[in-house]
Amino acid sequence: MAKKDFHISEKYNFRHALIESRRKSRIGSKIFHDLCAMEVAIIGGGAAGFFAAISCAETHPEAKVFILERGNSTLQKVKVSGGGRCNVTHACFDARELVRNYPRGSRELLGPFMRFGPTQTIEWFAARGVRLKTEEDGRMFPVTDDSQTIIDCLARAAARAGVRVETSVRVEGLSRSGDRWQIQTAAGNRAADAVIVTTGSNERVWAWLAALGHRIVPPAPSLFTFNTKDIRLRDLSGVSAPAVTLTIPALKLTASGPLLITHWGLSGPAVLRLSAWGARQLQDCGYAFELTINWTGMRPADALEILKSVKQESARKTLRAHALFELPTRLWQNLCEAANVLPELRWADANTKTLQRLAEELAAGRWTINGKSTFKEEFVTAGGVDLKEIDFKTFASKIQPNLYLAGEVLDVDALTGGFNFQAAWTGGWIAGRLGG
For the domain 38-220+378-432, what is the CATH superfamily, name and number? Predict the structure, then answer.
């Protein structure tokens, strides 16, 4: 306790000396204010909030920086991310490639990622004792495979920088009083010179930001799986295909990648990409649409030619016995059944009409989707503060002075794989510098 008191006293003496210095030498008011009197509130104790607080406290060491978190604990999304391992970022070090993983915000994030991207994120954590590892798909995790490692690192860095963390503080509104901010909470008003909002997707927060003049893009779920009861998926839960192309013809949306069959329908990277880019359109159609699946990676006509070649080479074998196009055997058999290929049919006896039906099923099969499900622990939402109202050099509001916004409170979202966290680290780091 004595050590803490000494620190506070020492800070007070430093500020007192600056007051005297200003009086005697007429230091510019902005410099004086920045060093001595600035109070900065970060609303939201998640990934972007902690990064903003740490960045601010380290950049402006004499500022009073505090986090206001409505929950009884902080960094909860960090805790559950990646199945409890925390997918910190992605090994994509070219900003121009990186932004392709952001359905909303790709153009605006290019400059920020050039300043603070995955390379800087890796270095930031390494400098604080946390090493990251890269998995085959590019996702990066702490070498401990434990999200608590990231939580502890952020908590230590915040404490070392002098950030005060307050939990169970529900912010109910934000307003201007002169050149300062008034933060309304259930326990009374709090004042701050600058406010950084990092609350994530929160309609209550969006409401009071709208009252301040910001336009809010209506929210829509992103990163979800597709529900279907199609009989072709019977007994296939857990089966995956390495490379498929999904198309929603009515919406002119296409995505490719691995696909996973679940007990409720379809999941995997290809589905998640399609759900992310089609978030608003799929919401508008009530998640009921026709989906085309190409399991082969080629046109139906080309798939037909492959089938004709196999007919010549494997005439005595039955069609269902051996899967083609690297498909799992059970999936291949179900697709053959859907194309009316009888179990005992040999390749030699398959006529052109049968092969055409099979080629169409394999390369352009039609599926009815009738709903969505949340993907694991991902809680990503499209929508938020209109990006046109943010200066992405500083993440400052163009509507209100000394107001900064970072993370998913903005109309920014990304694919799964560490990209959403990278946007949080980047936005928090830049916003916390307060234009510096």
Answer: FAD/NAD(P)-binding domain (3.50.50.60)
